[in-house]
Design a protein that fits this description.
Elements lengths: L2 H16 L3 H21 L6 E6 L14 E6 L12 H4 L32 E7 L2 H4 L7 E7 L5 E13 L12 E7 L1 H8 L6 E5 L3
Antiparallel strand pairs: 1-2, 3-6, 4-5, 4-7, 5-6
């Protein structure tokens, strides 16, 4: 056999052996799909987290009932800090700020009943202080005196002494309101006195310990 014939024979054999058959392509595709399916099945799905939300608009100080609340799934990365995940856990508490429909309930926007000693007849009441900057000085447990500016000028002592129970964070997604909202511990008589000044700016002075 001549050199040219050998070369042609070798080239033909190589071309036949190197040709990719359709069956092999199909088998490779099926294998890749099977692997992808196995990975998808074995990868845990990131399900939502049930969070308690307001079913309707709620006013500050409202007592929460099961009719006011609902559960809504939130993506894990969007669950608010200290959010309630059970309606039973939130039921019976009082809001420390107004809530719009669909807003998530968190520990920051309900009054802390644990702030009152057992058997105490005092009350917890939300009060909005007029000066945001000065309110940054406040801490839970401090005692303050409340004042109000009168429409015709001057000021008047509203309550001689109340105790700060909590500085309330402003809920996300709601229109920003000026003034720091705080919950305070006070007597029923003092609570009635504060109610007389509803709508007027409230300022404060920190009392010595």
């Amino acid at each position: 056999m001549g050199i040219l014939q050998r070369f042609r024979s070798t080239s033909t054999t190589w071309a036949r052996s190197s040709r990719i058959r359709p069956q092999r392509i199909l088998a490779a595709v099926c294998l890749a799909c099977a692997c992808a399916l196995i990975v998808w099945v074995l990868t845990p799905s990131e399900s939502g987290t049930a969070v308690v939300v307001a079913k309707t608009d709620l006013a500050p100080g409202a007592e929460l009932t099961s009719q006011d609340l609902a559960l809504k799934d939130f993506p894990p990365d969007l669950v608010p800090d200290k959010a309630f995940t059970s309606i039973a856990e939130a039921k019976g508490r009082h809001t420390s700020a107004g809530l719009s429909q669909g807003s998530a309930l968190t520990a920051s926007i309900v009054l802390d009943q644990q702030a009152l000693p057992e058997g105490s007849r005092d009350l917890l009441m939300p009060i909005r202080l007029a000066d945001d900057a000065s309110a940054a000085l406040l801490q839970p447990g401090q005692k303050i005196r409340l004042f109000s500016s009168l429409p015709d000028g001057g000021s008047e002592v509203v309550v001689e002494k109340v105790t700060i129970a909590r500085l309330v964070d402003k809920p996300e997604g709601m229109a920003a309101e000026s003034g720091q909202l705080v919950s305070v511990i006070l007597s029923a008589e003092d609570a009635g006195r504060v109610a007389e000044f509803a709508g007027l700016p409230i300022s404060f002075a920190i009392l010595p310990r």
